[in-house]
Design a protein that fits this description.
This is 2-hydroxy-6-oxononadienedioate/2-hydroxy-6-oxononatrienedioate hydrolase. GO terms for molecular function: hydrolase activity. Pfam families: Abhydrolase_1. Helix 1 packs across helix 7. The radius of gyration is 20 Å and the shape is globular. Strands 1-2-4-3-5-6-7-8 form an eight-stranded mixed sheet, sandwiched between helices. The protein is of the alpha/beta class. The protein has a domain of about 210 residues: Alpha/Beta hydrolase fold, catalytic domain (Rossmann fold, 3-Layer(aba) Sandwich).
Length: about 325
C-alpha cells in the first residue's frame, strides 16, 4: 500500500503543477489582454480577422510601408521601433499582427507563405499595393514569401536582420526541446507551465535581443510584449519557429527570381541572426539587392538604428517607382 502511494506521488505532483500553471496562465493571459487591448482597426479575411496598427497620412503620403514583426512579438514592436518615425516623415504605415499573434486570429496560418497569403488578402481588401514591405527577423521570411507569391502587392522589400536561408543540418535541438515542441505537448505546456516560465524569463530575453545595445526605455510596455505570454500566442510562436526550417527550404530556391528593389539591413554584432549566415548570403542571392551593414549593432535594428533604417527605406521609394 505504501509503495503504491509512493509510486503515484510523482503523478500527483505533476498534476498539481500543471493545475497551478493552468490557473497562472489564465491570469497572465487575462492581465496582458486587459493591459494591451486592440489599438487599431481589424481587417476581416476568410476565417477571421487580422489586427493592425496604423499611422501616418492616408492621403498625400509619400508611400505606404507595411511592417511584419518577428517571433515573440506583435505589430507594436516594429510600429514603435521604426513605424512612428516613418509616419512622421510622411509615410502611411500599416503594421500587422501576424496570424495567431497580438490580436489576430490564427487562421490556420503557421508558415511564412500562409501568413503572407492572409496579409496579401488584407492588402487587397484595403485596396493597397504595391507597397514597401519591411520584415524584421522571422518577419523577413514572411515578407519574402509575400513578394514571391503576391508580386502585384509589393513594390520593394526592406529585410531587417532577416531569417530567410535554411539552417545548417548540424543545428539540432536537444531531445527535451524536440519533445516539448511536439504539437500535443506544446499545446499543453502553452496553457500550463509555458506562460509562467515565459513571464519569468521575459526581461532577460528582451535584454538579450537588444545586445550589445541596452534595452530601449519602456520597451516591454511600448512593444506590448506581454501579449506574447498568452497561451494562444505562445503556442502559435512555437508552431512558427518549429515549422520555419522546412518552410525556408521550400522558398529558398526562388529568391533568385525576385525582380524588385530589395534592401537587406543587418547589424554585424547581431548575436541572434548572424549577418554572415543570413543577411550577407541572402543579399548575394537576390539580383540587385543592396546590403547595409551596421557596425556594432545587434538584432533590434528598428529600435536602436531607427533613423538610419528610415533613411534607407525612404531611398527605396524612387527606385521602386522606376521598376514598376
Amino acid at each position: 500500500m505504501v509503495l503504491a502511494v509512493l509510486a503515484g506521488a510523482p503523478l500527483v505532483l505533476a498534476f498539481c503543477l500543471l493545475a497551478i500553471g493552468a490557473v497562472a496562465s489564465l491570469l497572465i493571459g487575462w492581465r496582458a489582454g486587459a493591459a494591451y487591448p486592440p489599438a487599431g482597426p481589424f481587417v476581416s479575411v476568410e476565417g477571421g480577422r487580422l489586427a493592425t496598427l496604423q499611422a501616418g497620412p492616408e492621403t498625400g503620403a509619400r508611400g505606404t510601408v507595411v511592417l511584419i514583426h518577428g517571433a515573440s512579438a506583435n505589430a507594436a514592436d516594429p510600429m514603435e521601433g521604426i513605424g512612428r518615425t516613418l509616419a512622421a516623415q510622411g509615410f502611411r504605415v500599416i503594421a500587422f499582427d501576424r496570424p495567431g499573434h497580438g490580436w489576430s486570429d490564427r487562421l490556420g496560418a503557421g508558415t511564412p507563405a500562409s501568413q503572407a497569403d492572409r496579409i496579401a488578402t488584407a492588402l487587397a481588401i484595403l485596396d493597397l499595393g504595391p507597397v514597401i514591405v519591411l520584415g524584421h527577423s522571422w518577419g523577413g521570411a514572411a515578407a519574402l514569401a509575400l513578394a514571391l507569391d503576391h508580386p502585384e502587392r509589393v513594390s520593394a522589400l526592406a529585410l531587417v536582420a532577416p531569417v530567410a536561408l535554411p539552417f545548417p543540418q548540424r543545428m539540432t535541438l536537444p531531445w527535451y526541446w524536440r519533445l516539448a515542441a511536439k504539437p500535443p505537448v506544446a499545446w499543453l505546456l502553452s496553457r500550463t507551465l509555458g506562460p509562467p516560465l515565459a513571464l519569468y524569463h521575459l526581461r532577460g530575453a528582451a535584454a538579450h535581443a537588444f545586445r550589445p545595445q541596452p534595452e530601449a526605455a519602456d520597451y516591454l510596455d511600448r512593444a506590448r510584449v506581454p501579449l506574447a505570454l498568452r497561451p494562444g500566442a505562445l503556442f502559435a510562436n512555437v508552431e512558427d519557429l518549429m515549422g520555419l526550417p522546412a518552410a525556408l527550404e521550400r522558398q529558398n530556391p526562388r529568391y533568385g527570381d525576385l525582380r524588385l528593389p530589395v534592401l537587406v539591413v543587418s547589424g554585424d554584432a547581431d548575436p541572434l541572426v548572424r549577418i554572415d549566415a543570413q543577411a550577407g548570403p541572402l543579399a548575394e542571392r537576390i539580383p540587385g539587392a543592396r546590403l547595409v551593414r551596421l557596425p556594432g549593432i545587434g538584432h533590434m535594428v528598428p529600435w536602436v538604428a531607427g533613423d538610419r533604417l528610415a533613411e534607407a527605406v525612404a531611398d527605396l521609394v524612387p527606385v521602386a517607382a522606376t521598376t514598376r
